[in-house]
Here is the input.
Amino acid sequence: MNKLLFIYIIFCYLLASIFTLQNSISIENQLIGCLSLIILFGIPHGAIDNVLSLSESNLSKKSFYSLYLLSMIFYAALWFIVPLFSFIFFLFLSSYHFGESQLSNYNIKNIFSKIIYLVWGISLMSTLFFYNSNELIILFNNFNDTSKFNIIFDYLLLDTLFYFSNACFILSLIFLKIQNYINRQIFNSELFQILLLHITFYIFPVIISFTLYFVFLHSIKVLVQEYSYLEKKFNGLSLIKFIRLLVPFTLLALFFFILFILISNYYELNISLLLFSIIGISVITLPHSISMTNFYNKLNKL
Amino acid sequence: MLLNVIQTIAPDNYVAFTFFIGYIAMLAASVFFFVERNSVSEKWKMSLLVSGLITGIAAVHYYYMRDYNLVTGDSPTFFRYVDWILTVPLMCVEFYLLTRLAGATKSLLWKLIFASTWMLVCGYIGEAFNPGGGGATSHSVLWGVLSTLGYLYILHSVWLGEVAKLSESSGSEVVKKGVRALGWFVLVGWAIYPIGYMCMDGGWLSGIMSPDKIDVWYNLADAINKIGFGLVVYSIAVAESNKEIAKS
Here is the structure.
């Protein structure tokens, strides 16, 4: 168990106490708490893709920003042409990204590593959806433009994905252990973590469940990896300087999000806040995932 | 009288069944640890004595608890906490004994004993006395949170704090692996207790697991945690004793 997992467990106990005391937490309070954590840790973890990608790279600043923006524009356009496909692609992309972030530091050098990353991510996402499908169906049915995505939360599809991906992940873990890619300690730790995620996703509402994972087991973990990489690269990078690096693009992302909320309050827009948030997150996730894949390659070479 | 009671146990009374199993298993484990104490070197005898005491104390309590449960049909909360308040600090003593050779001080021992006692006293106050009645939760949540602080302190110490660091510096792979294995007992095995606490009447998880069934889980968890804990200590003691014999 590492420090982040320890903090994750503390938060689980804390939330369980609040739920016992109040029986439930209103959706508004859930959103306030979760958004605060995502703004504090979630957005910043992707706010230095530029610094990470440009270090040890032949890519010029101009080319990097052009490619980053082009991929975002391309994906945004795809959303308006084939929304359902874009949504499914987003789920797969996020799954791969989460799996890569979870397992990349074990430096698994075999041809199946990328498949294992995807399997881990799919098992995470399908577990989240499996235990919270009713809540998600209600949420997506709230808006006309998101109700068509409910096809994803079909019970049969979710059941199949849930059991198949979790079984595949456990088999992959056993394979990695037998082939000595991971030791017993990592094997136990990964097994425990997936069990903990199952319990969390089962007992807490979907927004809290996802935020707990996304903030503590993904974003902060990545931030720590980014800091330790940059500390080595720029000898003696202080924490203050690192935070300063995170600020500009975090504020930029927040600015656009707040701008949209303000505009949607004054004008009748043809897009719901939920769909806008999904599109917004997905278009950032595409270049971020590519940047992170490059980052993990660099990290493993160190 | 005893035979009459045994004959009236329904075949699907898993609570009574696990109380019996728990009692016999703990007793057998105690005999094993006390007898095997002679097969390890001098410095590991204390560890095996403590292991035997843990399961021995639990066996006596399980003997009382099974009777109490059979006669009243209630959950023996009082006896359970008396058992835990004696055995859990002893489990913490095991951590001290294992890391003593790597330089563990008496202060670590007392900190662990204090944290475990705190955890159990607060848990008992939260579970046994509820001024607001069965459904009220503010009292149990307050004492539950206080109790959890003790648990988190022990968890932190074993995985990330003093105990973890001492086992790393012990220079013995066997001790390192052993402390890690005991850490898993604290992390996974002991998790049943706060879950059980949240399953009591009015608790947040009472809908998931009924308070009647929690005794089965407590009994199974107790048996695994106490006997398993002792067996890990026993395997460390045997391995380290063999090493000493090989050296001499």
Notes: The first helix of chain B runs from residue 2 to 7. Chain B touches chain A through 23 residues (CB under 8 Å). The mean pLDDT of chain B is 86. Residues 167 and 176 of chain B are 5 Å apart (CA to CA).
